[in-house]
């Protein structure tokens, strides 16, 4: 498998191809000038496309310049890391992967990113 990413002036496109160049998975998303957040969303979608990952969230630690992926699911984090390294460009592979039992949610049902920052030990 191999992956390709195109970050344009208004969009981010990611595709995962097999050996015969058949598209196995792809995403196209507008980034509204926030490329870092959009790449995080693309990484979340790529992780959630892996069997054994039920939900994923990507966080960026700007102080340490590290990309964290937090996920819920039965897949071992070493196996997830291996699959992401095989399919994503090197610069999109998370520096740290954290497996948790359940995704913390806000009152509105959105992922509680502040709670995940504590899980990842990201300083605010």
Write the SSE topology:
Blueprint: E1 2-7, E2 11-17, E3 23-30, H1 35-48, E4 55-61, E5 66-72, H2 77-87, E6 96-100, H3 113-120
Parallel strand pairs: 5-6
Antiparallel strand pairs: 1-2, 2-3, 4-5
Describe the overall structure.
With 124 residues, the chain is α+β, with helices and mostly antiparallel strands. It is 27% helix and 32% strand. It contains 3 helices and 6 strands; from the N terminus they run βββαββαβα. Strands 1-2-3 form a 3-stranded antiparallel beta sheet, with helices on one face. A 3-stranded mixed beta sheet has the order 4-5-6. β1 (2-7) and β2 (11-17) form a beta hairpin. The longest helix has 14 residues, at 35-48.
Number of strands: 6
Report the end-to-end length measured between terminal Cα atoms: 37 Å
Strand order in the largest sheet: 1-2-3
User: Oligomerization state of this entry?
Assistant: single chain
- Topology pattern, helix = H, strand = E: EEEHEEHEH
Instruction: Please bin the fraction of helical residues.
Output: 25-40%
* Share of residues in strands: 25-35%
Which class do the helix and strand fractions yield?
alpha+beta
CA radius of gyration: 14 Å
Task: Describe the main β-sheet briefly.
Answer: 3 strands, antiparallel
In the predicted model, the low-confidence regions spanning at least 5 consecutive residues are: none
Mean pLDDT: 87
